[in-house]
C-alpha cells in the first residue's frame, strides 16, 4: 500500500511539473510597423538606382520587457503597401526588390507606385517558407533590416511616397 501511495505521489508531482512548465510559457502578440520614405528626383530617360533600408526591432513595443526570453516567433500577418504618394503619377519602378535581411520577400517589375498608392493596394506575404525564414532571423538576432532597392524611372518630375511594412506576430516567452 505504501508503494502504491508513493507511486501516486510521484506521478502527481511529475504531472504538476509539466503543468507548471506550461504555465511558465506565455504568448505575446505584437504589431510591428515600419515605414520607408522614398524620395525620387526627376530622371532623364535613364532609370536611377535606389537602395533604402529600415531596421525593425523585437525589443520594442509589447515585447520589450521580454528581451532575451523569446523562444519562438510566429508571423500571423505580413503586408506592405505604398502610401502618401505625391508627384509624377506616371513614374515606375522598372525593377525592385523588397527584402527582410537576406530573404527576398517580393519582386516588382514595371510597377506604377501612384496607382498602387491611390488604390490602397495591400500586398500580403503568405509564403510559408518566406515567413519561416523571417521568423528564424528574428529569433537569431531580435532585429531585421527591411531593404527596398532597385531602379526607378520618373521622367515627368519628382516622386515621393512611403512604403509601409506591417507585421502581426506572436512571440512565445519562456522563463
Number of helices: 3
User: Unreliable runs, pLDDT <50, ≥5 residues?
Assistant: 16-23
Strand composition percent: over 45%
Summarize the amount of helix as a percent range: 10-25%
Please characterize this protein's 3D structure.
There is one protein chain. The protein has about 180 residues and is α+β, with helices and mostly antiparallel strands. Helix content is about 25%, strand content about 55%. Strands 1-8-3-6 form a 4-stranded antiparallel β-sheet. Strands 2-7-4-5 form a 4-stranded antiparallel β-sheet. The radius of gyration is 23 Å and the shape is elongated.
What order do the helices and strands come in, and which of them pair?
Elements: H1 2-23, E1 25-40, E2 48-57, E3 70-87, E4 92-100, E5 103-112, H2 113-119, E6 122-124, H3 128-141, E7 143-153, E8 159-174
Antiparallel strand pairs: 1-8, 2-7, 3-6, 3-8, 4-5, 4-7
